[in-house]
Amino acid sequence: MGFLLVAFNVKMRDDRVMLTTAPSPDDYQHIKEKLIDYLSRQGFSERKLSQKVIDLKRRYPRTKRYYFYTAENVQLVINELKTLGLIDDRKYAKDVLRQLKDRKDGIYRIRQKMHQRLIPAPIIQEVLQTWQNEGVNQDYSNIIRDAKRKYQRLLEKHPSTKDSYAIQSKLYAYLAQKGYTQDEVKSI
Question: Cβ distance 46 to 31 under 8 Å?
Fold first, then answer.
């Protein structure tokens, strides 16, 4: 018969045993090192980083080191890293926008990718609104080049002049899938 061994930090106070689930300094340091390790490789939103570290406990259930990787303990460490300025969702959202804005993605696709990275919706809205209010235009050269290639492939596939409507609608759908608005599709 197997037994489940649960570890608690035990503190003695007034001849009473007090059980706490707070991590020991070593466990706290392990969580902190894991978070910093992930942040050193790439940026993460607070929620995504927390989820990534907490999932280690589920992925490796027999590893003792991950026993204290609970949501509460990870949040303690994240709060410390936030005060140090290592985790900032607004800064991360601006970095993601800067990376994605001049690629082949439109504003709707950029918003979707930010949601997938678990950036909070109010921050996404704020960053995109600020970007649009600044009047900085997106560089469409990559998507124009891509749309021209797509148009040539569609012409080869549909050589008849009767298919011009089909070509236009397929090209429109392609650009809409990339996240561009109707006005942007017309200008592209």
Answer: no
